[in-house]
Design a protein that fits this description.
Blueprint lengths: L12 E6 L4 H11 L8 E5 L5 H12 L3 E6 L3 H14 L3 E3 L2 H11 L15 H15 L7 H5 L2 E5 L5 H9 L5 E5 L8 H5 L5 E5 L2 H14 L11 H18 L3 E3 L5 H16 L1
Parallel strand pairs: 1-2, 1-3, 3-4, 5-6, 5-7, 7-8
Helix pairs in contact: 2-3, 5-7, 7-11, 9-10
Protein backbone atom coordinates (compact mmCIF):
# COMPACT_ATOMS: atom_id res chain seq x y z
CA UNK A 1 0.00 0.00 0.00
CA UNK A 2 1.60 3.26 -1.13
CA UNK A 3 -0.79 5.68 0.54
CA UNK A 4 -1.33 7.50 -2.79
CA UNK A 5 -4.95 7.93 -3.89
CA UNK A 6 -5.42 7.35 -7.62
CA UNK A 7 -8.25 8.69 -9.74
CA UNK A 8 -9.94 5.26 -9.47
CA UNK A 9 -9.88 5.25 -5.68
CA UNK A 10 -12.02 7.20 -3.28
CA UNK A 11 -10.27 9.04 -0.51
CA UNK A 12 -11.11 7.49 2.87
CA UNK A 13 -13.11 9.81 5.14
CA UNK A 14 -13.23 9.97 8.91
CA UNK A 15 -16.40 11.62 10.18
CA UNK A 16 -15.66 13.15 13.59
CA UNK A 17 -19.05 13.34 15.27
CA UNK A 18 -19.91 14.93 18.61
CA UNK A 19 -22.87 16.29 20.54
CA UNK A 20 -20.50 19.01 21.78
CA UNK A 21 -17.47 20.78 20.26
CA UNK A 22 -15.78 17.57 19.10
CA UNK A 23 -12.23 18.67 19.93
CA UNK A 24 -11.40 15.47 21.81
CA UNK A 25 -12.31 13.13 18.96
CA UNK A 26 -10.74 15.46 16.41
CA UNK A 27 -7.43 15.45 18.29
CA UNK A 28 -7.38 11.64 18.56
CA UNK A 29 -8.28 11.18 14.89
CA UNK A 30 -5.60 13.60 13.72
CA UNK A 31 -3.03 11.82 15.86
CA UNK A 32 -3.96 8.55 14.16
CA UNK A 33 -4.07 10.07 10.67
CA UNK A 34 -0.59 11.54 11.18
CA UNK A 35 0.72 7.96 10.97
CA UNK A 36 -0.34 7.87 7.31
CA UNK A 37 0.70 9.96 4.32
CA UNK A 38 -0.46 13.58 4.48
CA UNK A 39 -3.71 14.15 2.57
CA UNK A 40 -4.43 10.42 2.27
CA UNK A 41 -7.41 10.59 4.63
CA UNK A 42 -10.07 13.28 4.73
CA UNK A 43 -11.34 14.43 8.14
CA UNK A 44 -14.81 15.96 8.43
CA UNK A 45 -15.75 17.31 11.83
CA UNK A 46 -19.45 17.47 12.66
CA UNK A 47 -20.12 19.16 15.99
CA UNK A 48 -23.22 19.79 18.09
CA UNK A 49 -25.23 16.84 16.78
CA UNK A 50 -28.50 17.13 18.69
CA UNK A 51 -31.07 14.84 17.06
CA UNK A 52 -31.48 11.39 15.56
CA UNK A 53 -32.24 12.80 12.12
CA UNK A 54 -28.77 14.31 11.97
CA UNK A 55 -27.29 10.94 12.97
CA UNK A 56 -29.11 9.23 10.07
CA UNK A 57 -27.78 11.81 7.60
CA UNK A 58 -24.21 11.27 8.78
CA UNK A 59 -24.45 7.47 8.57
CA UNK A 60 -25.97 7.67 5.09
CA UNK A 61 -23.16 9.94 3.94
CA UNK A 62 -20.52 7.69 5.51
CA UNK A 63 -21.78 4.55 3.76
CA UNK A 64 -21.42 6.24 0.36
CA UNK A 65 -17.65 6.53 0.81
CA UNK A 66 -14.96 4.41 2.45
CA UNK A 67 -15.85 6.10 5.74
CA UNK A 68 -15.28 5.66 9.46
CA UNK A 69 -17.24 7.46 12.16
CA UNK A 70 -15.26 8.47 15.25
CA UNK A 71 -17.52 9.88 17.91
CA UNK A 72 -17.71 11.43 21.36
CA UNK A 73 -21.46 11.31 21.99
CA UNK A 74 -22.57 11.10 25.61
CA UNK A 75 -26.33 11.45 25.18
CA UNK A 76 -27.57 7.82 25.36
CA UNK A 77 -30.37 8.06 22.78
CA UNK A 78 -28.08 9.59 20.15
CA UNK A 79 -25.29 7.10 20.84
CA UNK A 80 -27.69 4.13 20.59
CA UNK A 81 -29.07 5.43 17.29
CA UNK A 82 -25.59 5.87 15.86
CA UNK A 83 -24.46 2.38 16.91
CA UNK A 84 -27.63 0.78 15.54
CA UNK A 85 -27.64 2.63 12.20
CA UNK A 86 -23.91 2.14 11.63
CA UNK A 87 -24.25 -1.59 12.23
CA UNK A 88 -27.25 -1.80 9.89
CA UNK A 89 -25.38 -0.10 7.06
CA UNK A 90 -21.97 -1.65 7.71
CA UNK A 91 -20.27 1.60 8.62
CA UNK A 92 -17.31 1.14 11.02
CA UNK A 93 -17.47 3.30 14.15
CA UNK A 94 -15.00 4.14 16.90
CA UNK A 95 -16.19 5.24 20.34
CA UNK A 96 -13.52 7.67 21.58
CA UNK A 97 -15.03 8.49 24.96
CA UNK A 98 -17.09 5.43 25.93
CA UNK A 99 -14.38 2.94 26.95
CA UNK A 100 -12.72 5.45 29.26
CA UNK A 101 -16.02 6.45 30.85
CA UNK A 102 -16.92 2.79 31.38
CA UNK A 103 -13.53 2.08 32.95
CA UNK A 104 -13.87 5.07 35.30
CA UNK A 105 -17.41 4.03 36.22
CA UNK A 106 -16.22 0.49 37.04
CA UNK A 107 -13.25 1.58 39.13
CA UNK A 108 -15.06 4.37 40.98
CA UNK A 109 -18.52 2.89 41.33
CA UNK A 110 -19.92 6.24 40.17
CA UNK A 111 -22.39 6.89 37.35
CA UNK A 112 -21.32 9.39 34.62
CA UNK A 113 -23.38 12.59 34.35
CA UNK A 114 -23.98 11.91 30.64
CA UNK A 115 -24.13 15.60 29.78
CA UNK A 116 -22.57 16.97 26.61
CA UNK A 117 -19.94 19.72 26.72
CA UNK A 118 -18.96 19.55 30.38
CA UNK A 119 -15.28 19.95 29.45
CA UNK A 120 -16.05 23.27 27.78
CA UNK A 121 -18.61 24.50 30.26
CA UNK A 122 -18.53 28.28 30.40
CA UNK A 123 -17.92 28.65 34.11
CA UNK A 124 -16.09 31.34 36.07
CA UNK A 125 -12.72 29.68 35.53
CA UNK A 126 -13.22 29.70 31.77
CA UNK A 127 -14.06 33.41 31.66
CA UNK A 128 -11.17 34.21 34.00
CA UNK A 129 -8.78 32.45 31.63
CA UNK A 130 -10.19 34.22 28.56
CA UNK A 131 -9.90 37.56 30.34
CA UNK A 132 -6.29 36.82 31.28
CA UNK A 133 -5.39 35.89 27.69
CA UNK A 134 -7.00 39.06 26.37
CA UNK A 135 -5.08 41.02 29.02
CA UNK A 136 -1.74 39.47 28.02
CA UNK A 137 -2.29 40.38 24.37
CA UNK A 138 -3.47 43.92 25.11
CA UNK A 139 -0.62 44.76 27.48
CA UNK A 140 2.19 42.94 25.73
CA UNK A 141 5.60 44.58 25.28
CA UNK A 142 4.73 47.68 27.32
CA UNK A 143 2.07 48.82 24.82
CA UNK A 144 -0.05 50.48 27.48
CA UNK A 145 1.35 51.37 30.93
CA UNK A 146 -2.17 51.28 32.40
CA UNK A 147 -1.98 47.49 32.27
CA UNK A 148 0.91 47.53 34.75
CA UNK A 149 -1.33 48.71 37.58
CA UNK A 150 -4.03 46.13 36.79
CA UNK A 151 -1.71 43.15 36.31
CA UNK A 152 -1.35 40.31 38.78
CA UNK A 153 2.31 40.21 37.83
CA UNK A 154 4.56 42.33 35.61
CA UNK A 155 7.46 40.68 33.78
CA UNK A 156 10.46 42.86 32.92
CA UNK A 157 13.60 42.04 30.95
CA UNK A 158 15.59 42.71 27.80
CA UNK A 159 14.46 41.61 24.35
CA UNK A 160 14.33 37.84 23.61
CA UNK A 161 14.06 36.62 27.19
CA UNK A 162 10.67 35.01 26.43
CA UNK A 163 8.57 37.64 28.18
CA UNK A 164 5.61 37.30 25.81
CA UNK A 165 5.46 33.46 25.74
CA UNK A 166 5.72 33.48 29.54
CA UNK A 167 2.82 35.93 29.88
CA UNK A 168 0.67 33.85 27.52
CA UNK A 169 1.47 30.69 29.48
CA UNK A 170 0.54 32.43 32.73
CA UNK A 171 -2.67 33.67 31.12
CA UNK A 172 -3.70 30.05 30.54
CA UNK A 173 -3.32 29.66 34.30
CA UNK A 174 -5.73 32.62 34.72
CA UNK A 175 -2.91 34.99 35.74
CA UNK A 176 -3.10 38.52 34.32
CA UNK A 177 0.47 39.19 33.24
CA UNK A 178 1.85 42.30 31.55
CA UNK A 179 5.42 42.65 30.31
CA UNK A 180 7.74 45.59 29.84
CA UNK A 181 10.93 45.52 27.72
CA UNK A 182 14.01 47.09 29.28
CA UNK A 183 16.02 49.17 26.80
CA UNK A 184 18.78 51.58 27.88
CA UNK A 185 17.50 54.35 25.60
CA UNK A 186 13.93 54.18 26.96
CA UNK A 187 13.12 54.61 30.63
CA UNK A 188 10.57 52.07 31.91
CA UNK A 189 7.16 53.43 32.91
CA UNK A 190 7.04 54.94 36.40
CA UNK A 191 4.26 52.47 37.23
CA UNK A 192 6.87 49.70 37.42
CA UNK A 193 8.57 51.43 40.34
CA UNK A 194 5.29 52.22 42.08
CA UNK A 195 4.22 48.58 42.33
CA UNK A 196 5.07 46.43 45.32
CA UNK A 197 8.24 44.50 44.50
CA UNK A 198 6.32 41.22 44.87
CA UNK A 199 4.26 42.01 41.77
CA UNK A 200 7.27 42.48 39.49
CA UNK A 201 9.56 39.70 38.28
CA UNK A 202 12.73 40.26 36.28
CA UNK A 203 14.11 37.91 33.66
CA UNK A 204 17.81 37.66 32.89
CA UNK A 205 19.88 35.38 30.67
CA UNK A 206 23.51 34.48 29.98
CA UNK A 207 25.02 36.97 27.47
CA UNK A 208 26.46 34.28 25.18
CA UNK A 209 23.13 32.50 24.91
CA UNK A 210 21.26 35.74 24.23
CA UNK A 211 23.81 36.50 21.54
CA UNK A 212 23.01 33.18 19.82
CA UNK A 213 19.25 33.74 20.14
CA UNK A 214 19.43 37.22 18.65
CA UNK A 215 21.73 36.11 15.84
CA UNK A 216 19.19 33.44 14.93
CA UNK A 217 16.40 36.00 15.14
CA UNK A 218 18.18 38.22 12.65
CA UNK A 219 18.76 35.30 10.28
CA UNK A 220 15.05 34.45 10.46
CA UNK A 221 14.20 38.03 9.52
CA UNK A 222 16.72 37.96 6.67
CA UNK A 223 18.90 40.64 8.27
CA UNK A 224 22.67 40.79 8.64
CA UNK A 225 23.93 39.01 11.75
CA UNK A 226 26.37 41.84 12.44
CA UNK A 227 23.65 44.25 13.52
CA UNK A 228 24.22 46.06 16.82
CA UNK A 229 21.12 44.36 18.26
CA UNK A 230 22.93 41.01 18.30
CA UNK A 231 26.44 42.16 19.20
CA UNK A 232 27.83 40.85 22.46
CA UNK A 233 28.93 44.36 23.46
CA UNK A 234 25.38 45.70 23.07
CA UNK A 235 23.93 42.73 24.92
CA UNK A 236 26.24 43.27 27.90
CA UNK A 237 25.17 46.92 28.06
CA UNK A 238 21.48 45.95 27.99
CA UNK A 239 21.83 43.24 30.63
CA UNK A 240 23.78 45.56 32.92
CA UNK A 241 21.11 48.25 32.50
CA UNK A 242 18.30 45.76 33.12
CA UNK A 243 20.00 44.45 36.26
CA UNK A 244 20.21 48.02 37.57
CA UNK A 245 16.49 48.54 37.01
CA UNK A 246 15.64 45.24 38.71
CA UNK A 247 17.79 46.14 41.72
CA UNK A 248 16.02 49.50 41.94
CA UNK A 249 12.61 47.80 41.83
CA UNK A 250 13.81 45.17 44.30
CA UNK A 251 12.02 42.38 42.45
CA UNK A 252 12.85 38.65 42.25
CA UNK A 253 15.05 37.76 39.25
CA UNK A 254 14.85 34.52 37.29
CA UNK A 255 17.66 33.34 35.01
CA UNK A 256 15.90 31.88 31.95
CA UNK A 257 19.07 30.49 30.35
CA UNK A 258 18.29 27.09 28.80
CA UNK A 259 14.91 27.00 30.56
CA UNK A 260 11.65 26.07 28.87
CA UNK A 261 8.79 28.54 29.29
CA UNK A 262 7.04 25.98 31.48
CA UNK A 263 9.99 25.91 33.89
CA UNK A 264 10.10 29.69 34.17
CA UNK A 265 6.32 29.85 34.62
CA UNK A 266 6.55 27.29 37.40
CA UNK A 267 8.99 29.55 39.27
CA UNK A 268 6.77 32.58 38.70
CA UNK A 269 3.71 30.74 40.00
CA UNK A 270 5.71 29.64 43.02
CA UNK A 271 6.61 33.28 43.74
CA UNK A 272 2.98 34.37 43.29
CA UNK A 273 1.70 31.64 45.63
CA UNK A 274 4.33 32.60 48.23
CA UNK A 275 3.22 36.24 48.02
CA UNK A 276 -0.40 35.25 48.66
CA UNK A 277 0.46 33.41 51.89
Amino acid sequence: MTGITTEHEQQPVVFVVSDSVGETADFVVRAAVSQFNSGFIDIRRIAYVKNQGHILEIVNEAREVPGVIAYTIVLPELRETLVKEAKTHGVPIVDILGPMMNALANVSGKIPKMKAGLLHKLDKNYFRKVEAIDFAVKFDDGKDPRGIIRADVVIIGVSRTSKTPLCMYLAHKSIKAANVPLVPEVAPPEEVFNLSKNRVIGLTIKPELLNEIRQERLRTLGLKSGADYASLERILIELDYAEGIMRKVGCPIIDVSNKAVEETASKVLEIIRHNLQ
